[in-house]
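User: Hey, quick favor. My workstation is busy. Could you predict this chain's structure for me?
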Amino acid sequence: MTAPRPIRFVHQGQLTAVAGLPPTTTVLQYLREHARCAGTKEGCAEGDCGACTVLVGELDAQGDAVELRNVNACIQLLPMLDGKALLTVEDLGGSADLNPVQQALVDCHGSQCGFCTPGFAMTMQAIYERHQAAGTRPARQELADDLSGNLCRCTGYRPILDAGERMFDAPVRTLDRAPIVEALRALRDDPSLHYEAPSRSGAMQRVFAPRSADELAALREAMPQARLVAGATDVGLWVNKQQRELGDVILTGRVDDLRRVEQAPDGLLRIGAAVSLEDAWAALTARVPALRELWLRFASPPVRHAGTLGGNIANGSPIGDGAPALIALGARIVLRRGATRRAMPLEDFYLDYMKNALEAGEFVESLEVPALPAGTRLRGYKLAKRYDSDISAVCAVLSLRLEDGVVRDARFAFGGMAAIVKRAAKAEAAVAGRAWDEAASLAAAEALREDFSPMTDLRASASYRERAAANLIRRFWLETRANAPIAAESASVWQAVNLQRSVA
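Assistant: No problem, here it is.
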């Protein structure tokens, strides 16, 4: 265990050290209350509106460049910045020297009250930097997808999207990253973070940020009561909305071993537990393109940049969208305690509402996803009240393996239908060993009534969930039937929304 030290990060191009602040101080609170950088705004304090968007930078694997990602400052805990760079709207340009993003927002009248504008500007800067580096220019729909984590209540989105296109017309002017690279290199030799300070209640609180899986395993075994925190996209709400004390915290975001996506020779895709949601979904979608819409609709880009797939799976929410996809793909979860590892099918990991098979001192090390067998047809569906950045009422990922038109294996995984994400065993049995035809799909939809007794809540009624889930099986058949399958987008209620967004 390393000696306690301050949190060290790069802010406004300079090395910054912070000590004495409560470990659950958010990045937003630090900026507004301590750094006096008031451009970043608080809207929702739960990672939904994007008014607090900032850029967080890390050195790439070679240590030669900075990778920038937009995240929500309101649910990022200050110790999570250790060893990284923080950029805010103050870094973009002053009123006398607007950069291309700011100038485009002015020219296109993309701001009225201005409260959400700093967040939009930071997301747009991330878009601008990424495309300038790649020598590409985003389509309007791509801009809309990338901006889905930023909400506006004044202008509507047309002028903001106009500005997103206009910013690429100006002479290229990207951020000067050289000073940031130099400063981040100076932080690489810092020991693993061990931060101690009084919590908001006055009790001493410790935060550890190990750098290797072995170091994490040792800490976890020695401190089984400590709270593991990955992206804080859920824990941040506990702090902001419930005023919960976290006790000792172990951060997983700096564990390099757990931040890797590896392709094994046998086709196994291994996703470390600390791989971001964005990178994990990119890897899954590269393998299974049918999951792309589920990826785009999984929260928002700032949440996907901060959160991890391992954290989403370990959290075990029955309305989480990661578990249905992985269960339908036949994934296994790898758990570790000390030097001991054990693996199990992901569906066996969930025991009851918010209860799982983790034992004291264990943590999720990785997720293993096998290659899809030949003849597999798979689709992912998300039903929610909003298209972008909303929590599912029902999430379904349905998979069939066919041989000569006959179902040899079925994996129908549903979220939002029970206390845990689970497979629909009766519906799967209803199609096993028979031709994949309309009669089989109707039998599966009928059997689904025996698999689930969904609840009524603010997101949907029990009757809606029951009927909608059955209809998704019907839709799955329409998209995968042997004769004249329909295109996925033509069966989507959101197709009209996408068309409107693309021409808005």
